[in-house]
Amino acid sequence: MAVLGSLIKGFIELSDTFSSETNPVESQKNVLKELLTTAKNTAFGKHYNFEAILASENIEEAFSKAVPYFDYHNMYQSWWYKLHDGQINVTWPGDLTYFALSSGTTGKTSKRIPVTDAMIAAIRKSGIKQVLALKNFDFPADFFEKEIMMLGSSTDLNEHNDFLEGEISGISASNIPFWFKGYYKPGENIAKIDDWDTRVLQIAKRAKDWDIGALSGIPSWIELMLQKVIDYHNLNTIHDIWPNLTVYTSGGVAFGPYEKSFHALMGKPVTVIDTYLASEGYLATQTRPESSAMSLNTNHGIYFEFVPFKPEFINQDGSLTQNAPVVTLENVELEQDYVLIISTVSGAWRYLIGDTIEFTDIERAEIKITGRTKFFLNTVGSQLSVNKMDAAMKTLENTFSTKITEYTICAKRAEDNEFYHFWYIGADNTNLNETDVAIALDDALKTANKNYKVARSKALKGVKVTLVSPDMFYEWNAKNKKKGGQVKMERVMGEETFKAWETFIKAQY
C-alpha cells in the first residue's frame, strides 16, 4: 500500500477543504491596492503619485489613467536600467537578487527582468495552488510517491553586476523547497549542466534509475528529451522505461500544436495539465480536468488588465498604442481576444507581456492563450492570429496523417511583385506534395477566418509551403539563441529574419 502517497493525497484534500474560495474580482482589487501601497515610496511610485491613486474613489480607473503602458524596452530604458547601476527602490522596494533572462521568441539579446523575493514567494504560492488542484484529477495515492522530471534551463545561475541571472525555470528550480528535493529530477547536479545536449544525454543515461510519475516543461524540449531517452534505450515508447508516468504539466506555449506528436511517444494515456509560467511571473494554471483552460492566479502578486486585441490598438512592433482602451477582470467578455497587461511584485507596471488570451469562464477567471501580439499577421488585411494558425496545422495533420510540431510564416512580395504567405512547416513526413499542402492550408484558413478569406480575394495572392524536418527549427534556435529552457520558436518572422532563416535552411540541405 502506498502509505506515503495516501498521506500526501489526504493532506492535499484536507488543505483544499479548509482553503476558502476566493472571488477573483475582489482578489484583484486587493492585489492592486497591496501593490500600490508597497511601492508608493519607490521612485516609480512617487513619479506616478501612487498616494493619490490610493486615495481615489476608483483605484483601478485612477491607476489606468495615471500610469502608461510599458513594454520591456521602455520599462528597461526608463526604469530598470537603474537597477544595474546599483540603485534600489526603483520600481519595487528593497534589494534584488535575481534577473530572469528571456530572449523570448524574437532577437538574440536577452531581456533582463527583475525577480524579487516577493515574486519567488508568489510563484511558490501559485505552485501550491497547482498542487492542491491535483485533488480534482483523482489520481491514485501511489502517484504522489513518484518522482517529477522538471526540464527547464540550467540552475547554475550566472553572476552579473552582483546579481544572479538565469531563465525563470532555472531560478524557480534553484529555489525549490527542501522537502521537494527528494522528488525532483534530474537532480541538482544534472540540472546545473548548461549545455542542453550534454544535460539531456545525462538524463537518458540515468533514466532507468528513476520512477517518473510527472513531467514539467516546454513541449518542444520535453519531446526532444523523451525521444532521446527512447532512442538511447532502444524503446518503443517512454512508458517502457517510466511505466508510472501519469501527468505532463505543459507550459510556456500552447500545447495544442504538440498534442499529436507528444502522445505518439506515450504507451498509454497521460493527463496533460496546462500552466502559464512566464519570465514575469506565474500567471495561470489548469485546476480541473473537465476544461483545458487555465485559472488566472488572481491572488498571488499579479494584477491583470486586458486590452481588446484589435488592429487599431497594435503598433507594427507589437506594442500598444497609448490610447488603447483597457478593461479589468470585472468587465471582460467571452469570445474576445485580449492583450494581457500585468503589474507585479517584481516591479513591472502596466506591462505588456506580449501574449493574447481569451476568457472561457469569467466567473472562474479561466483563460486560454491565443497568440502573441508580435505574431499577429495583418499584412494586406489577413488578420491571422496564432490560434488560427495552430488550428490550421491540426487540420493539416488530420488531412495528411502527419505530425506537425513547428512552423513559421512570413508575408512578403514574391518575384511577381505580389504578396504571398510563405510557410515553413516542420512535419514528420516531408515527402508530401507541397502544392497539395498549400491548397489545404489556404482552404483551412479561409474557413476559419473571414478576414483572411477577404484578403485572399484581393491583395494576398496565395500561399507557398516548404516542408522541412522539425529538427531544423530546434537547430535554428540553437544557432540564434539556445536550446532548451524558455526558448520558443517565432511563429511570424519579419522579412530580414526570414531571409536569414531561408539561408540557414538552404545550408542544411
Notes on the structure:
Residues 299-362 form the GH3 middle domain. InterPro entries: GH3, GH3_C, GH3_M. Pfam families: GH3, GH3_C, GH3_M. It is a single chain. By secondary structure, the chain is α/β, with parallel strands linked by helices. The protein has a domain at 377-508. The protein contains 17 helices and 18 strands. The protein has helices at residues 3-18, 24-39, 43-47, 50-55, 59-66, 72-84, 117-133, 168-173, 188-191, 196-206, 219-232, 259-263, 386-400, 434-448, 450-456, 471-480, 495-508, and strands at residues 98-102, 111-115, 147-150, 158-160, 163-166, 184-185, 212-217, 247-250, 271-278, 281-285, 294-296, 302-308, 337-344, 351-361, 366-372, 404-413, 419-427, 460-468. The strands form three sheets. It has an eleven-stranded mixed β-sheet, sandwiched between helices. Strands 2-1-5-4 form a four-stranded mixed β-sheet. Helix 10 (196-206) packs across helix 11 and helix 13 crosses helix 14. The longest helix has 17 residues, at 117-133. Mean pLDDT is 85; it is low at 1-14.
